[in-house]
Amino acid sequence: MSGDRIELRGLRVLGVCGALPEERDRPQPLEVDLDVEADLAAAGRSDDLADTVDYGALAAAAVRVATDERFTLLERLATRIAEEVGADGRVTSVTVVVRKLRPPVAVDLGTAGVRVTWPGPERPASRPETTRRRAFLGLGSNLGDRQARLREAVAGLPDVVAVSPVYESEPVGGPPGQPLYLNAVVELATGLDPRALLEVAQGLEEAASRRRTEPDGPRTLDVDVLLVGDLQVCEPDLVVPHPRMYERRFVLAPLADIAADLVPAGWEERARGAVRLVGTL
After folding, report:
1. pLDDT of 213-241, one tens digit each?
2. Which of 80, 100, 146, 248 is catalytic?
3. Closest Cα to residue 113, out of 102, 122, 100?
4. Active site residue 100
5. Which CATH number fits domain 133-279: 3.30.70.560, 3.40.1350.10, 3.40.50.2300, 3.30.750.24?
6. Alpha-carbon distance 31 to 11, whole Å?
7. Beta strand pairing status for 233-235 and 222-228?
8. For residue 266, how many other CB atoms are within 10 A of its CB?
């Protein structure tokens, strides 16, 4: 490692990041610092922009992530910025600091932030990648701003490679008079096992203030682990593949849009319920 470093300080952006309802409804002011390690010796000799890493491009990448994506945690936002900046092959290490300039706490606190280093000591670039599997999660919401809830869930998921179109469907079971659901399916390429994915799903539901007051009742967010490669799990709180996914049109329709190879032939005739395509996230 050369020890050379590009430093960016005090990048101000507006982004959606937070677990509180008021933080999810509107962007808030954030400040980003970047320490980008790269070999700058050639640029020092040549005085040629082509021989260095353009700090304007680094700043633009950070702004793009913070403004175009939505996050629950600062940790995830900082990691995504680090991943984007680190995608430049000349970059060997990135340290990202992200601060909330108006942290929503009941004390006199100037800023609240996190510091993330990529690739980090626990995941060195030379270490072989963890085996990744195709995993699919089903998302649903029928309370509040349903589409915003689905967008926030997608933004909070790791290793997303595809997101289905959004479908509207009637509730299955539960009390009468519930609002209609919006549903989507997300594909991940992940090293997480089914139990870890369940924990991610439950964390997203908790961040969306889901309340389990009655079986099959309305919910701000529902996240189901549908498939994780060819793994099978049968435990009291987790069954994979999801035991009812092949009966439900609101699961199979979006799944077919992004992974037609995984839906059974003739599912359109056998799946229950009706759905209506409403758009994309």
Report:
1. 777 789 999 999 999 999 999 999 999 99
2. 100
3. 100
4. yes
5. 3.30.70.560
6. 5
7. unpaired
8. 8
